[in-house]
Design goal:
The complex is a heterodimer of chains A (62) and B (254).
Chain A (H helix, E strand, L loop, with lengths): L7 H11 L2 H20 L3 H6 L1 H6 L6
Chain B lengths: L1 H40 L6 H8 L6 H30 L9 H19 L10 E2 L3 H29 L4 H22 L4 E2 L5 H37 L4 H11 L2
Antiparallel strand pairs in B: 1-2
Helix pairs in contact in B: 1-3, 1-7, 3-7, 4-5, 4-7, 5-6, 7-8
């Protein structure tokens, strides 16, 4: 087993060498955008269209 | 390597998403519409502030709501799959279990973090519920409790790691302590923020149970599909991928 693969710290280091900060920021922003649209967007049109999903999934709705 | 994980996680999310999409289409959609209409037919006067949006006509048609809800369900599982993959990549060395069991441990932690802990204060509400707080406050509470859920999951996993070397049962007991403490204490110290005067309590119970079971099912499906994809990829990338290496080691060592 390689040492870098053994610990949480090692995993973070591996990711740091494999990815640029720009890629990490892009991924995080993308995930945040999806999460926001699905969970928190209260604009009436969006809210009403996703109404059944939010209730069914137990997400805070209105 | 992280990209491999993410790829499998998103694929696993698609698998879970298709199943959850069917669930939304055939269970959540009709049930939510039914509860919505049942709540309408009687007792409209009380709690009009919280009904403000629901009491009025739909902004979009029921068909649109049904279709977008199914799509949102699929996207939701994909999002969870992606988050699961990144978390597994980062925390895999710290998770107990081997041969894929660690995926299910993480799935359990994910369910505890994203759904179960926030529900202790803000339970899944059927349509027509009366809320103690406004939507902004509840979103804030929910997000804060996701953080608490993550802390509780981490505490449980760390406690297991401490106690398990002495005896596995002791480890399980130690892991249960932070979880049970949260489940007992949190609802006791927080006010009841959701009441459903318009809907029969049995229906509310069924609705909440369905929400809980369906969310748990998403996590189990993600972990299961992820493990399957990983096993299928392992022989192909043999020894090239460090990930495959560590997995082989795990299966080989007793």
């Amino acid at each position: 087993m390689t040492a870098t693969n053994e610990t949480v710290h090692g995993r973070i280091e591996t990711a740091r060498t494999e990815l640029t900060p720009m890629q990490v920021a892009t991924g995080l922003l993308f995930a945040a955008a999806i999460a926001f649209a699905l969970l928190f967007l209260q604009e009436p049109l969006a809210h009403d269209a996703m109404h059944n999903f939010r209730h069914g999934a137990g997400i805070v709705c209105h | 390597m992280l990209v491999d994980y993410l790829q499998r996680g998103v694929l696993a999310g698609v698998v879970a998403g298709l199943a959850y999409g069917l669930y939304v289409a055939f269970v959540a959609n009709p049930l939510t519409e039914y509860v919505h209409d049942a709540g309408h037919s009687h007792g409209h006067g009380a709690g009009d502030h919280s009904h403000a949006q629901e009491g009025t006509e739909h902004v979009v048609s029921e068909t649109t709501t049904a279709l977008v809800s199914v799509g949102s369900g699929v996207l939701w599982a994909i999002l969870l799959g992606g988050l699961f993959a990144v978390a597994l990549y980062l925390f895999e060395p710290a998770l107990p279990g081997r041969d894929g069991l660690e995926s299910y441990v993480l799935a359990g932690a994910g369910f505890l973090t994203v759904s179960a802990t926030p529900w202790l204060v803000v339970p899944p509400a059927a349509p027509g519920a009366d809320h103690l707080y406004g939507i902004d406050a509840r979103i804030g509470i929910y997000v804060g409790l996701v953080g608490l859920g993550a802390a509780v999951s981490a505490a449980a996993i760390l406690a297991y790691g401490r106690a398990a070397p002495r005896h596995p049962a002791l480890g399980a007991l130690a892991a249960a302590v932070p979880i049970v403490a949260t489940v007992v204490v949190l609802p006791a110290v927080t006010p009841t923020v959701v009441t459903q005067p318009d809907v029969a309590s049995e229906l509310v119970t069924a609705y909440q149970a369905l929400a809980a079971l369906s969310q748990a099912a998403i996590w189990v499906l993600i972990a299961g599909a992820f493990n399957r994809l990983r096993r299928r990829a392992d022989p192909a990338v043999n020894a090239v991928d460090t990930d495959a290496d560590s997995h082989d080691q795990l299966t080989a060592s007793p």
